[in-house]
Design goal:
Layout (H helix, E strand, L loop, with lengths): L20 H16 L3 H14 L4 H13 L3 H14 L4 H13 L3 H17 L3 H14 L4 H13 L3 H17 L3 H14 L4 H12 L7 H8 L42 H5 L29 H13 L3 H13 L5 H13 L3 H9 L8 H14 L3 H13 L8 H21 L1
Helix pairs in contact: 1-2, 2-3, 3-4, 4-5, 5-6, 6-7, 7-8, 8-9, 9-10, 9-12, 10-11, 14-15, 15-16, 16-17, 17-18, 18-19, 19-20
Length: 429
C-alpha cells in the first residue's frame, strides 16, 4: 500500500505519473467538508491525500495552505502558496496570501514587491478598487518608494479625483528626491502644476530642485527637511494612518442591520476607503466634529476629507450628520461613486429604502460597485416586500461574482449571498 506523502515530501525534481482522479476527488470533497466545520487538521490531511495523486493541483495546494494559516503554521502555508506561484505567477489568490504571509513573517521587502505585483494584476483585470487597496498596502510597507504613489496617482486621475492625484504625485516626487532622481521628481511636480498651477508645495519642490541642480550631496535630505510628508493643496497627509494598518476593504466594518453586509465580494473597496486607506484628509471646512449645517459648497481638494468626516460620524452613530455630508458632496457637483455608495448604505441603515435604492441604481454600470449594489438592492426591495424584484437583483449579484478571483475569505460572503437569494426564491414559492 502506497504511503500518502505530506506536502513537504513532494520535491520539485520528482516526476509523478498521473494520479487517480476518483481518489483525488473523494479527498478534495472530504477536505472541503472538514473546512466547512473548521476541522483544519483533518482538512489538511485530506488535501495531502489529494496531492498524493496530483501534486501540482492549485486548489489542493491552496486549500492546504489555508489550513496551515488557520493553525498559524506560517512557513508551511507560504511553501504551499509559493509552489502555486512558481507554476502560475498570475494566480491572484496565491499571490495575495503570499503577500500576507510575507508581512506576518516580517519579510517586508518581499511583501512590498508582492503587493505591487498583485496591484498590477488587479489593475490589468479592471478591478480598480482591489488594485487601489494593494497599492496602498505597498505604501504602508515602504512609504518612501515612489512607484506605488505614482501608480495611485494615475488611478486617481482616471477617477477624476484631483485632490488625491495631487497628493500621490507629491508623495512620488518626495520618493524620487530621496533617490536623487531630480528629473523624475520634477516630472511629478509638473504634473501637479498642470492641474493646479498655484500648488505651493509643487512650486517649492521645483524651486528646491532648480536651486540644487548643480550641487552634490544631500538633495534628498534637503527636500525632506524642508517639506513635510507629501500633502495636497489643502494639507492632506500622505501615507498610511499611523497605527491603523487597515486595507482598503476593511476601513469600515458594516454591520448591516437591514439584512447582511453590503460589502459582498470585497466591492466595498473605495466606499470604505474613500480613495485611499491611509489618508484621513482634512476636516470639513467648519472644523472637525462639526455637523454638516449650514451647508457650503466644497472644493475638489476637500472631498476626501469630507468623506472621512462622514465616516467618523457613521462610526459615532451620527447617521444623519454623515448623510448630510455625503449629500453635500453630491450637491457640490462631485458625482463620485464612493460617495454615492456610502450614502446609499447610510440610507439603507436608516431604513430609508427608496432613497437607498435611488443611489444604488446609479452605480449599476460601475465595475467596482455593481455587484455590491445589486446585492444591496435585493436587500432593499426585500425589506419593502417586493420579493420578485429582490430575487432578480440577488440573482444578478450572484451572476456577477468572479469565481476566478474569489478568495477564501470571500467564499463566506458568496455563501451568504447565495443563501439570501435562495431564501428569497423560497419565499416566492
Amino acid at each position: 500500500m502506497r504511503r500518502v506523502p505530506c506536502a513537504t515530501d513532494i520535491s520539485e525534481s520528482e516526476s509523478f505519473m498521473p494520479g487517480n482522479r476518483q481518489v483525488f476527488s473523494t479527498a478534495m470533497n472530504a477536505a472541503d467538508r472538514c473546512r466547512w466545520d473548521s476541522q483544519w487538521a483533518e482538512a489538511a490531511r485530506e488535501y495531502q491525500r489529494a496531492l498524493g495523486e496530483f501534486p501540482d493541483d492549485a486548489a489542493a495546494r491552496g486549500g492546504l495552505g489555508f489550513c496551515y494559516m488557520q493553525t498559524k503554521q506560517w512557513q508551511q502555508a507560504l511553501d504551499e502558496y509559493e509552489h502555486i506561484l512558481k507554476r502560475d505567477p498570475s494566480n491572484v489568490i496565491a499571490l495575495s496570501k503570499t503577500a500576507e504571509l510575507y508581512v506576518i513573517l516580517n519579510r517586508r521587502e518581499d511583501a512590498y514587491k508582492a503587493y505591487l505585483h498583485l496591484a498590477e494584476l488587479y489593475s490589468q483585470a479592471g478591478q480598480g478598487a482591489r488594485a487601489e487597496a494593494a497599492w496602498q498596502r505597498a505604501v504602508q510597507l515602504s512609504p518612501g518608494n515612489p512607484e506605488p504613489h505614482e501608480r495611485l496617482a494615475v488611478y486617481y486621475s482616471g477617477k477624476k479625483d484631483i485632490g488625491m492625484m495631487i497628493q500621490e504625485r507629491l508623495a512620488a516626487a518626495q520618493g524620487y528626491l530621496s533617490r536623487n532622481d531630480s528629473a523624475a521628481a520634477r516630472a511629478q511636480c509638473e504634473e501637479v502644476l498642470r492641474v493646479d498651477a498655484t500648488n505651493k508645495q509643487a512650486q517649492q519642490l521645483l524651486s528646491q530642485i532648480r536651486g540644487q541642480k548643480q550641487a552634490t550631496g544631500s538633495l534628498s535630505q534637503g527636500a525632506g527637511a524642508a517639506f513635510p510628508p507629501a500633502a495636497g493643496s489643502q494639507g492632506v497627509p500622505s501615507g498610511p494612518l499611523g497605527a491603523a494598518g487597515n486595507s482598503a476593504t476593511d476601513i469600515v466594518t458594516l454591520s448591516n442591520t437591514s439584512g447582511g453586509n453590503t460589502g459582498i465580494m470585497g466591492n466595498m473597496g473605495s466606499a470604505g476607503n474613500f480613495s485611499g486607506s491611509g489618508n484621513p484628509g482634512p476636516a470639513i471646512a467648519a472644523g472637525a466634529g462639526m455637523g454638516p449645517d449650514p451647508r457650503k459648497r466644497i472644493t475638489a481638494s476637500q472631498v476626501t476629507g469630507v468623506l472621512r468626516q462622514a465616516q467618523t460620524f457613521q462610526t459615532q452613530g451620527r447617521f444623519n450628520d454623515a448623510i448630510g455630508l455625503c449629500e453635500q458632496i453630491l450637491e457640490s457637483g462631485f458625482d463620485r461613486p464612493d460617495a454615492r455608495y456610502f450614502l446609499g448604505w447610510l440610507y439603507q441603515e436608516q431604513r430609508r429604502w427608496d432613497e437607498a435604492i435611488r443611489q444604488f441604481q446609479t452605480l449599476l454600470n460601475d465595475p467596482d460597485y455593481a455587484l455590491s449594489c445589486y446585492y444591496a438592492l435585493g436587500q432593499c426591495y426585500r425589506a419593502r416586500g417586493d420579493l420578485r424584484t429582490a430575487t432578480m437583483h440577488f440573482d444578478e449579484a450572484v451572476d456577477r461574482v468572479n469565481l476566478d478571483a474569489l478568495t477564501v475569505e470571500e467564499s463566506d460572503q458568496l455563501v451568504q449571498l447565495c443563501q439570501e437569494a435562495a431564501e428569497a426564491h423560497r419565499q416566492l414559492g
